[in-house]
Design a protein that fits this description.
alpha+beta; Aminoglycoside 3'-phosphotransferase, Chain: A, domain 2; three-stranded antiparallel β-sheet; 11 helices; 11 strands
Length: 332
């Protein structure tokens, strides 16, 4: 049967030597180097802006993926049969950032700081569809608070509770207090922040910055998968990366401080950015994720994995509080 992806590739000015499936994409060996064909779920306008930004990074000497335009100059190619849009990108071989290697971790943080520095200096007009609302994080926290309360009420009204539910109720009040305190502090920061201060914090964010999207290729760190790019508070990328790493390191205060320092050495963090970093890390997001998964799952059967995750969160809480205490004083 004729391969639809091969038909899509015929619309590009490249000669395909071989292809191989990988992580929801098609990796291609071509006469112009390695490329990857990937389904794109955004708009044509988003793809066009992404093309320009990645070209800007490339022209600035920053190692990152770039998008290959089709013969007709279009950034996206459509599979008319299945109504799917595709993007072709220049691709790289190498190894991902090793989260067990502190040198890899700090290198990834420095690359992120460099990305934000370049993105902040970019003079291109930012389209409205890329801009996050000023209070988007506040509304997210408020929604999460309501969801946590809903789960609590459901469990409280059950006559017979399983192990997960007993553990949840055991720690709920503590995490609820954290969640509401952080939400209130975020609201105060927004109310006291003028437009100039907010503008200094905003810039183009990767949107999905994690170890899988940082690749060491031929001795150079390359950033990949920018499809979730947004224009928002830039330290969101740093906060998300720090959280993912520290959850693997039992919330090591030393490593957390080292990551923040490495970023700050490349791109100086403003006082209001440090407060944002604290607010993004202090919200009990892991606890909310576990509760949300429970809420959307079949209640008659609880996965042992969910219990393990909740127990792990509970075990790490003293170290997490110690890290947040350090960060609070560091940002004050």
């Amino acid at each position: 049967m004729y391969n639809r992806e091969e038909e899509i590739l015929e619309q590009y000015d490249v000669e395909i030597r071989s292809t191989a499936k990988g992580r929801g994409a098609l990796n291609c060996d071509t006469d112009k180097g390695l490329m990857q064909l990937k389904e794109f779920r955004g708009s044509k306008e988003r793809a066009a802006f992404l093309y320009e930004i990645l070209e800007y990074l490339s022209d600035s000497g920053f190692a990152a993926e770039t998008i290959v335009a089709a013969r007709d100059g279009e950034v996206l190619v459509k599979d008319e049969v299945n109504d799917i849009l595709y993007l072709l990108k220049n691709w790289y071989t190498g190894r991902e950032c090793d989260v067990r290697n502190r040198e890899d971790i700090t290198a990834a943080v420095r690359r992120l700081a460099k990305l934000h520095t370049l993105a902040k200096s970019c003079q291109k007009e930012i389209p409205d569809f890329l801009k996050a609302d000023r209070d988007s994080l506040l509304r997210e926290y408020e929604r999460h608070n309501r969801e946590l309360n809903k789960v609590k009420n459901y469990i409280r009204n059950k006559n017979k509770k399983n192990r997960f539910e007993l553990l949840f109720m055991q720690v709920y009040e503590g995490y609820k207090e954290q969640a509401y305190q952080v939400t209130e502090q975020l609201n105060r920061q927004l109310e006291g922040m003028d437009a100039a201060a907010e503008s200094r914090m905003r810039g183009l964010c990767h949107g999905d910055y994690n170890q899988h999207n940082v690749l060491l290729s031929q001795g150079e760190w390359v950033l990949l998968n920018f499809e979730q790019m947004t224009y928002d508070i830039m330290v969101q990328d740093l906060a998300n990366f720090i959280r993912k790493i520290l959850e693997k390191y039992n919330w090591s205060t030393g490593l957390g401080l080292e990551m923040i320092t490495e970023y700050d050495n490349v791109r100086k963090l403003l006082p209001e950015e440090l407060e944002q970093l604290y607010l993004r890390l202090a919200y009990p997001k892991k606890f909310w994720k576990i509760a949300n998964h429970y809420s959307s799952s079949r209640k008659s059967w609880i996965s042992g994995r969910d219990i393990e995750k909740l127990e792990r969160v509970m075990e790490q809480e003293p170290q997490r509080k110690q890290f947040l205490k350090m960060l609070f004083y560091f940002t004050s």
